[in-house]
Amino acid sequence: MTSTFETVARIIASTSDVPLESITPDSHVMKDLEVDSLGFLDVVFEIDKTFDIRLPVEEWLQNVQGGYDGDTYFVLRNLCDYIDQTAGSAAVA
């Protein structure tokens, strides 16, 4: 079984130029890994498809533009927790 973090890290590495070994649970997708907003949309599309969920990325980006702390959405530990809660599963086979 693969953890949610491992799956998300592989998705980020495969959809961007970020080496897998540089991705940690405390990485901020945009600040630390330098994935831009368009790249993040590619990541979200793959997450949605892989976990059979729909992340509210449009709402998240609006919240961040409105001054809300983006760490809730974009730090991988928090993102994976959200995926687990939304998918109702702690891991993907």
In short:
The protein has helices at residues 4-15, 37-51, 57-65, 71-74, 76-87; strands at 2-3, 91-92. The protein has 93 residues and is mainly alpha-helical.
Topology:
Elements: E1 2-3, H1 4-15, H2 37-51, H3 57-65, H4 71-74, H5 76-87, E2 91-92
Antiparallel strand pairs: 1-2
Distance between the termini: 5 Å
Which sequence of SSEs, written as H and E, runs from N to C?
A: EHHHHHE
Helical stretch tally: 5
Q: Find the count of extended strands (DSSP E, 2+ residues).
A: 2
Q: Please give the largest β-sheet.
A: 2 strands, antiparallel
Beta-strand share of residues: under 5%
Percent helix: 55-70%
Key structural traits:
93 residues; single chain; two-stranded antiparallel sheet; mainly alpha
Could you walk me through the main structural features you see in this protein, from its secondary elements to its overall organization?
The protein is mainly alpha-helical and 93 residues long. It has helices at residues 4-15, 37-51, 57-65, 71-74, 76-87; strands at residues 2-3, 91-92. The chain has 5 helices and 2 strands; from the N terminus they run βαααααβ. A two-stranded antiparallel sheet has the order 1-2. The relative contact order is 0.22.
